[in-house]
Amino acid sequence: MMATGQEDLRVQRTKEAIRHAFTEMICDMDVDENSIKEVTERARINRKTFYLHYDSLDDLLRELPN
Q1: What is residue 4's predicted lDDT score, i.e. its pLDDT?
Q2: What angle do CA 64, 58, 45 make, to 5 degrees?
Q3: Which residues are within 8 A (CB) of 17 and not within 5 positions of it... i.e. 6 or more apart?
Q4: Among residues 59, 56, 55, 60, which one has the least CA distance to residue 17?
Q5: pTM, to two decimals
Q6: What is the pLDDT of residue 1?
Q7: CA 31/CA 1 separation, integer angstroms
Q8: Of these four, 13, 26, 36, 39, which has the most CB atoms within 10 Å of its CB?
Q9: Sign of the C-alpha dihedral, residues 34, 49, 12, 54?
Q10: What is the pLDDT of residues 1-57, one digit of tens each?
Q11: To 10 degrees, the CA torsion angle through 55, 4, 66, 38?
Q12: Those residues with Cβ within 8 angstroms of residue 36's Cβ, 6 or more apart along the chain or in another chain
């Protein structure tokens, strides 16, 4: 059983894939080209999976380290 406050390893890996894809994307593309569709394609996840973890790209951006 998981301790309170710990994320499942699958959730950690999925969020890491999303963050990695988004970080690459913002380096490769103009800001106005960024989209959830592009993030999900690069992270190889379903769009619904993205929305399980984040409400928007802004929500994801706030989670990234400065």
Answers
A1: 53
A2: 75
A3: 43, 44, 45
A4: 60
A5: 0.82
A6: 44
A7: 41
A8: 39
A9: positive
A10: 445 567 899 999 999 999 999 999 989 988 788 899 999 999 999 999 999 999 999
A11: -40
A12: 47, 50, 56, 57
Residue 32's identity, in one-letter code, is: D
Pair 41, 32: CB distance under 8 Å? no
* Sequence letter at residue 42: R
Cβ(18)–Cβ(61) under 8 Å? no
H or E stretch covering 11: helix 9-28
Coil, strand or helix: which one is 63? helix
